[in-house]
Write a structure and sequence with these properties.
The active site is at 19, 152. GO terms for molecular function: 4-(cytidine 5'-diphospho)-2-C-methyl-D-erythritol kinase activity; ATP binding. The chain is an alpha+beta fold. The chain contains 10 helices and 11 strands. A hairpin with a 3-residue loop joins strand 6 and strand 7 (170-173). The longest helix is centred in the middle third of the chain and has 16 residues, at 117-132. The protein starts with a strand and ends with a strand. The structure holds 4-diphosphocytidyl-2-C-methyl-D-erythritol (CDM) and adenosine-5'-triphosphate.
């Protein structure tokens, strides 16, 4: 989206939807240590927001409920500014100017929580800057630039339902996933992705089930998140969250990514909102967010 303020300046606004691994099977490991995955991914209305304006010099600011946390822990190496710098280098090398910008991140998603917040921000920055600068880049170059920023960034560039394989770069669109009503739940304890992969004992797990017939809900019933058992050993609150979401009537309930965020699927938007309210009351310090897939 592009808006003009009272001075006529153009602001480019881009949503950075949360990434939900509805199923995540770890099927092997590459020689360089990265794990091979098969994952069904959806994106939600809940997410961060990137805003970009022209400026005399580059700047970066953060607001939102999880903004402080990120500033404190980030040491200046944010995925947003890394995305800006990599994209600018690529554009300048093809003679495109990529002028200075002020980027603002509204950080609504918990940090290091398995729903790809940083990856979503990086991907949204790439999409927004390409629009803001009215620039062009070869799609393959953009895909490899995204992958350099993180294994989840290529799928976040798509930001619509998909199956990803490889380490996340081999992407196939899914066009018939129904709209899902979810509650996202997190105990607000950060989980390190490499740590969870390190703790995973069996690397060669069965792939995603074949989807010959049957509904996506049947498919979800037959699939897993292979990172959930090791994450739950590290953080027992994950087991508690699964229990709480199930008690609210969600099915299935599963962890996303490397955790700790879990999602529960509800029958209706009303049921999801009711569960969100009830969960907030029972665990006031935790993160609960009712949302729907896009
Ligand atoms: C768990 C997922 O979120 C599922 O979508 C992703 O696979 C993780 O993606 P990500 O957070 O973008 O991960 P990256 O920032 O690229 O990698 C962080 C670290 O996680 C480990 N890693 C990551 C992805 C992968 N397929 N295998 C791995 O072993 C590696 O140790 C890597 O150094
Ligand atoms: N814009 C950003 N938002 C969140 N984290 C960021 C950002 N930039 C850098 N980081 C760093 O990246 C790390 C991972 O954060 P992120 O929120 O993307 O994790 P995640 O949700 O577990 O990701 P994934 O699901 O892709 O594994 C954090 O340790 C954080 O300090």
């Amino acid at each position: 989206m592009r808006v003009h303020d009272i001075s006529g300046a153009t602001e480019t606004i881009e949503a950075a939807p949360a990434k939900i691994n509805l199923a995540l099977h770890v099927t092997g490991q590459r020689a360089d240590g990265y794990h091979l995955l098969e994952t069904l991914v959806a994106f939600t209305e809940a997410g961060d927001v990137i805003r970009i304006r022209d400026a005399d010099a580059d700047s970066f600011s953060i607001s939102g409920p999880f903004g402080d946390l990120l500033r404190a822990g980030d040491g200046g190496d944010n995925l947003v500014t890394r995305a800006r710098d990599l994209l600018r280098d690529a554009l300048v090398s093809t003679g495109q100017p990529a002028r200075p910008v002020a980027i603002h991140l509204e950080k609504n998603l918990p940090v290091a929580s398995g729903i790809g917040g940083g990856s979503a921000d990086a991907a949204a920055t790439l999409r927004a800057l390409l629009r803001h600068w009215d620039a062009g880049i070869d799609p393959q170059k953009l895909a490899s630039l995204a992958l350099r920023l993180g294994a989840d960034v290529p799928m976040c560039l798509e930001s619509r339902s998909l199956v990803a394989r490889g380490i996340g770069e081999d992407i196939e669109a899914v066009t018939d996933l129904p709209e899902l009503f979810l509650v996202l739940a997190n105990p607000l304890k950060a989980v390190s992705t490499p740590e969870i992969f390190r703790r995973l004992q069996t690397k060669n797990n069965p792939p995603l089930p074949e989807r010959t017939s049957g509904s996506w809900m049947d498919f979800l019933g037959q699939s897993r998140n292979d990172l959930q058992p090791p994450a739950q050993v590290l953080l027992p609150e994950i087991g508690e969250i699964v229990e709480l979401l199930s008690q609210e009537g969600a099915t299935p309930v599963r962890m996303s990514g490397s955790g700790a965020t879990c999602f529960g699927i509800f029958q209706s938007v009303e049921a999801a909102h009711k569960a969100e309210m009830s969960l907030r009351e029972s665990r006031p310090g935790w993160y609960f967010q009712a949302t729907r897939t896009i």
